[in-house]
Amino acid sequence: MPNTLTYLIWRTKQAGGRRPVVLSPRGTPPKISDKDARKAAVEFERERKRRDAERRREEEAREKERAKRAKLVAKAQTTLDAAQREHDERSEALHAERAAIEKRIQAEDERWEKERERLSASLHRARD
Length: 128
What we know:
Blueprint: H1 4-14, H2 34-127
């Protein structure tokens, strides 16, 4: 076993820097009285309850934050879905308009082709 001073310093560091443990000359810790043992047990229990309460508060805060985040995600998803439906409706309407315009363009091209042929024939007759 290390010398008494080294052990005393080591025990003080283990106790979190609190008061040093007084050792007997043989290097063994002193006997603890029942009163001190009960006091230590009560202090330990109080500290355990404090840690448990703090842990519960932290967990409740995390749960509250998770619920808040889930609510925001649901709201954002609803907004996205509504925007997607609106986009699909507008896109469908534009595609229908495009189909109608393409049909009109095709009809105009056919009309022009007939008109051009008629006028070209008339031009050829006039030249002859």
